[in-house]
């Protein structure tokens, strides 16, 4: 059912209500598809509360269901910290965090399932233990929960923005100001559902930027997140005119993998309640780019 012409009986009905009925899906499932851009109205992303109008066309591009399970795979992991509640991994650039259409193998989850038997089940069988994510081409530190207790605790810390995450990035352009706070809401791109964009209809997003070093045509940045929106750093910096070097989505100059590394994490340990801070050095690919610029 790729497209649906809105009948007169559905005029002024909420999009999520109508789509849930016609697609025979739960309201929550439909709302997730609307937010992800899998359900469009007249080719555009809209809010779930959108009231249907005469002449509207609903376009549905619902992906195939995920496979029933993720399989363990013997993939090396760089473990920075581990105890009975959590694992902190230094994810390599190019590794997808969890299985999804087009990436069912070779992910961090596949590697974790081979490495240990105890992972939280809060996010289901395809995302065991995954508390937060990093983009495929963003390297660096990511926390994994071994049990539901730790998972719920860390998720609450994320929601209250009490987990401090520091990234290093190389951007195109020389930023003159030493410090920069970007406070711009982010939402799904109105046309390209795979992209995010600065939008008044989006969710609040705050990014703190410090310039560590300036080069002839680039800047080395330290970036802290106050919120955790999808592609937040990449979208904010690109919007300000300083796209991350080699960002394949938000830098018009192109590239294969953005130069962005999650360098440090600071959080309250869910069991001991001790403040825990972990750091990782800049990876070789990052240092190689610094040498070149």
Structure, explained:
The chain is an alpha+beta fold and 293 residues long. The protein has helices at residues 15-23, 27-35, 108-115, 148-159, 232-239, 284-292; strands at residues 3-5, 39-41, 57-60, 79-82, 86-91, 139-145, 164-172, 179-183, 186-188, 196-198, 206-214, 218-225, 260-268, 275-279. The strands form 3 sheets. Strands 4, 5, 6, 7, 8, 11, 12, 13 and 14 form a 9-stranded mixed sheet that branches. Strand 13 (260-268) and strand 14 (275-279) form a beta hairpin. Helix 1 (15-23) packs across helix 2. The mean pLDDT is 92.
Biggest β-sheet strands, sense, barrel: 9 strands, mixed
Query: Considering DSSP H and I runs of 4 or more, what fraction of the residues is helical?
Result: 10-25%
Rg on CA atoms, Å: 21 Å
Any low-confidence stretches, pLDDT <50, length ≥5?
none
* SS elements, strand count: 14
Helix-strand category: alpha+beta
Based on the structure, what is the oligomeric state of the protein chains? single chain
Task: Describe the secondary-structure layout.
Layout: E1 3-5, H1 15-23, H2 27-35, E2 39-41, E3 57-60, E4 79-82, E5 86-91, H3 108-115, E6 139-145, H4 148-159, E7 164-172, E8 179-183, E9 186-188, E10 196-198, E11 206-214, E12 218-225, H5 232-239, E13 260-268, E14 275-279, H6 284-292
Parallel strand pairs: 6-13
Antiparallel strand pairs: 1-3, 2-3, 4-5, 5-6, 7-12, 7-13, 8-11, 9-10, 11-12, 13-14
Helix pairs in contact: 1-2
């Amino acid at each position: 059912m790729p497209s649906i012409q809105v009948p007169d009986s559905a005029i002024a009905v909420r999009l999520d209500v109508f789509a849930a009925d016609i697609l025979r899906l739960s309201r929550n499932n439909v709302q997730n598809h609307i937010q992800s851009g899998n359900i469009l109205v007249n080719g555009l992303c809209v809010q779930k509360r959108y009231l249907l109008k005469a002449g509207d066309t609903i376009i549905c591009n619902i992906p195939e269901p995920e496979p029933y399970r993720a399989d363990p795979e013997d993939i090396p992991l760089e473990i920075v910290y581990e105890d009975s509640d959590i694992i902190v991994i230094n994810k390599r650039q190019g590794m997808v965090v969890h299985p999804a259409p087009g990436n069912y193998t070779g992910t961090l989850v596949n590697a974790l399932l081979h490495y240990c038997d105890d992972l939280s089940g809060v996010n289901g069988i395809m995302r065991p233990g995954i508390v937060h994510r990093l983009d495929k081409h963003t390297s660096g530190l990511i926390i994994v929960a071994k049990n539901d207790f730790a998972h719920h605790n860390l998720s609450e810390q994320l929601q209250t923005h009490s987990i401090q995450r520091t990234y290093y990035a190389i951007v195109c352009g020389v930023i003159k100001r030493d410090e920069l706070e970007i406070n711009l809401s982010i939402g799904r791109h109105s046309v390209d559902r795979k992209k995010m964009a600065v939008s008044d209809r989006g969710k609040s997003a705050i990014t703190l930027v410090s310039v560590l070093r300036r080069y002839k045509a680039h800047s080395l940045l330290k970036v802290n997140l106050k919120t955790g929106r999808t592609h937040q750093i990449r979208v904010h910096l690109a919007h300000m005119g300083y796209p991350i070097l080699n960002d394949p989505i938000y830098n018009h100059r192109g590239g294969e993998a953005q130069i962005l590394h999650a360098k440090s994490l600071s959080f309250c340990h869910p069991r001991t309640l001790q403040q825990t801070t972990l750091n990782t050095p800049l990876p070789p690919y990052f240092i190689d780019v610094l040498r070149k610029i």
